[in-house]
From TrEMBL:
A Gene Ontology term for the protein's cellular component: periplasmic space
Record SUPFAM superfamilies: Chondroitin AC/alginate lyase
Record keyword Magnesium present: no
Pfam family, one: Alginate_lyase
Protein name: 12292_t:CDS:1
Region (Disordered): 48-69
Molecular function terms from GO: lyase activity
Ranges that cross the membrane: 7-26
Membrane recorded as keyword: yes
Keywords: Lyase, Membrane, Signal, Transmembrane, Transmembrane helix
Highest taxon listed in the record's lineage: Eukaryota
Residues in Alginate lyase domain copies: 138-413
């Protein structure tokens, strides 16, 4: 309890500093991230030195630390200061004043400052790269056409399918679950789509922090290029997603290619207040999404993916809920999202927390974590729409939290005791993100303790290069300080 109280106090102080920093940035029209970081760092050091000048009045001892673990008060605050007659605001003032006089406060504030600066640096760096990038993102650039022969039809190849050794031409390809065929990169539509969504995410966040319309203009350019311009646009369907070579149509599983659409939707909500925002472009994008949603819910692929029992069905629900909300079809979003969350919890999570449709895969650990990401996004949306998705319990008392807890002992033991097929081993970075957010959502300190234990393993994974593509965790800081704004965290 003491740990959580300290965290909340530090978080409140950090957000205050953050707000002041935004004001400084806006007023002084700072354009480069290095200037911004340098200015905020100087401001912090001055404040930090002022705090340090008073902190030498108190040097924490082991007895003090033990005492602080038993009380929500700082160890140098007499218990008699706060009693049942003291109102909550006064209690907070006393506690805050106490923490200002100890060395630990400076240490933790410095850590928060460093995290904030790194997050900001990474966001603006990626956004600046996106602005400077003059290459074209379009489905029309591929050299292998979809079976429709329409250059504007999106196409991707099935990830786990390989040439058939039993046939002369290798067709049709056959499945090797868990083994990615590098040939999938020969059709670049998927690569460009992911770049598009990543760029717009960073451009939106960069605009939030700087109010620099350059980022908005580039995002509008990319939206027009991919969804609207007759020369480069994508048709609003995924008929040829996850195509198996040797077949004439794609598969319903290709719909998961579009799962990060929520990043574009959320970034638009940030940028739409800009004076440079183009309402005409957004109207055209909404028309495209309306047509896509019609295909998503009526096509054979769409209906089959909706009925999928595993992560494919979960991320279908995430797509549909976000799109409905963005299109201002709020009542439909509420009904669909809440029904979907209840269904996924009841059919996908067992009483002990095992996600049975994910543990049946050959890369069972990865998919157990991956499906949790989808459930977190779905819970965030349904909660925003008025339902407590985080704490919903199914018919066997199972919940999203139960699924998080099921994985925890295996993570702490390096995967020991995991009884399911798992050819890809145990990687912890994505699960650590789940744990960090779990602490924010449910407030159980066991999640923080687990993060402390697992973080070195995650750093080792990074150092050894065991991730094919390492996504930095800076955006998760944005999720944490905004309490449950998870859309920026999961890549």
């Amino acid at each position: 309890m003491a740990q959580k109280t300290l965290f909340l106090i530090l978080l409140a102080t950090f957000l205050s500093i953050l707000s002041i920093s935004f004001w400084i940035l806006y007023e002084s029209n700072i354009e480069s991230v290095s200037d911004y970081v340098e200015q905020t760092s100087d401001d912090f050091e001055q404040t930090s030195n002022e705090f340090k000048s008073t902190s030498n009045k108190f040097e924490p001892t082991s007895n003090d630390i033990e005492s602080s673990n038993k009380s929500t008060l700082a160890p140098n605050v007499p218990i008699s200061i706060v009693d049942e007659h003291t109102n909550e605001d006064s209690k907070m003032e006393v506690v805050t004043a106490a923490y200002l006089n100890i060395h630990y406060y400076i240490k933790y504030l410095k850590i928060l400052r460093e995290q904030h600066n790194k997050m900001l640096y990474d966001i603006l760096h990626e956004a600046d790269l996106a602005v400077a990038n003059t290459s074209v993102y379009s489905v029309t650039l591929k050299t292998q056409l979809a079976p429709s022969k329409d250059l504007h039809d999106y196409m991707s190849l099935a990830r786990y399918f390989w040439p058939n050794p039993e046939t002369k031409d290798g067709l049709p390809y056959i499945r090797r679950d868990g083994f990615s065929n590098p040939e999938i990169s020969s059709v670049p539509d998927y690569i460009y789509l992911r770049k598009l969504m990543k760029d717009i995410q960073y451009l939106g966040l960069a605009y939030f922090f700087t109010r620099n319309d350059t980022y908005v203009k580039k995002a509008i350019y990319r939206l027009n290029e991919w969804f609207i311009d007759p020369k480069t646009k994508m048709n609003p369907n995924l008929n040829y997603g996850s195509l198996i070579k040797g077949f004439e149509f794609g598969r319903r599983t290709g719909i998961i290619d579009f799962r990060p659409i929520y990043k574009i939707i959320q970034s638009i909500s940030i940028m739409s207040s800009s004076k440079s925002w183009d309402n005409k472009i957004e109207s055209s994008f909404k028309k495209w999404l309306t047509d896509y949603y019609e295909w998503l819910t009526t096509s054979k692929h769409g209906r089959e993916e909706h009925n999928a029992k595993n992560n494919h069905g979960t991320f279908y629900d995430v797509q549909a809920t976000y799109i409905l909300q963005y299109l201002d079809r709020i009542e439909e979003a509420k009904e669909f999202g809440w029904k979907a969350l209840k269904h996924r919890v009841n059919t996908g999570i067992l009483a002990d927390g095992q996600q049975r449709h994910e543990t049946s895969r050959s890369t069972s650990w990865f998919y157990s974590v991956f499906n949790l990401q989808g459930l977190f996004l779905l819970a965030e949306r349904t909660t925003l729409l008025g339902f407590d998705g985080w704490n919903y319990r199914g018919n066997n008392n199972q919940s999203i939290k139960t699924a998080v807890d099921y994985l925890l002992p295996f993570a702490l033991n390096g995967g020991e005791g995991w009884k399911f097929k798992n050819i890809a081993g145990f990687k912890f970075n994505d699960y650590i993100r789940i744990l960090e957010l779990s602490w924010i959502i449910w407030g159980d300190d066991k999640y923080l303790d687990a993060v402390e234990t697992l973080r070195p393993k995650s750093k080792l994974e990074q150092a050894l290069g065991s991730h094919e593509v390492w996504e930095d965790n800076s955006l998760c800081i944005w999720s944490l300080i905004n309490e449950k704004s998870l859309w920026s965290c999961f890549n």
